[in-house]
Amino acid sequence: MTKRQLILLGLFCGAAYLAIWGNGNPAADAPAGRRAPDFSRPPAAKRTMAEPGRIAALIPRAQLMQPPQPGTNLFPVRPGATPPPPAQPVVLALVQAPVAPPLPFQFIGKKFEDGVWELYLDHAGQTLIVHRGDTLAGIYRVDEIQPANLLLTYLPLNTKQTLAIGQGEE
Q1: Which of 59, 135, 159, 168 is the most exposed place for a label (fewest CB within 10 A)?
Q2: Do 127 and 120 touch, CB atoms closer than 8 A?
Q3: Which superkingdom, per the lineage (predicted)?
């Protein structure tokens, strides 16, 4: 047997001992001068013993549960009670959709070579060489390079943004 089972067995034996040989006389525990209540009989049995041969009459349910008379106010206002204050209108705050932050890039220059645009952007003091399909700073994707604009997608919100890069000279 495990330690837990031994403890539970000991507690069970103690409870069984108290249940069988415990003091079952509540009068012994009552303070002097007071009589302990007699729990050996239910209260209804005491009443029938006091008035032998008499049974209390039952009241029919229909008489107990009568419907209210027409025009009866089921919820009357108590005298002196103040009515609750009028309900305040509920003001709903408009939740704005999240917006992509301003572009952290500055246009430096561009080059058109072999039919492909190559852009030079400044980001936090670093020069980036950008081509179509590149990912910038881990959160911007270069979708399209046109002669006048650079089309980027802000990936966390999937929002399109445009950076002006001037007119194209091929």
Answers
A1: 59
A2: yes
A3: Bacteria
Task: Report pTM.
Answer: 0.45
pLDDT tens by residue, 41-64? 656 555 545 466 677 778 888 777
Cβ-contact 163, 152 below 8 angstroms: yes
Pairwise pLDDT comparison (82 vs 161), residue with the higher score: 161
CATH architecture, domain 105-164: Roll (2.30)
Give 41's DSSP letter: S
Ordered by start, the domain boundaries in the chain are 105-164
Cα 168 off chain centre by: 56
Output the furthest CA–CA distance in the chain (Å, rounded). Answer: 120
Round to whole Å and give the CA distance between 147 and 85: 66
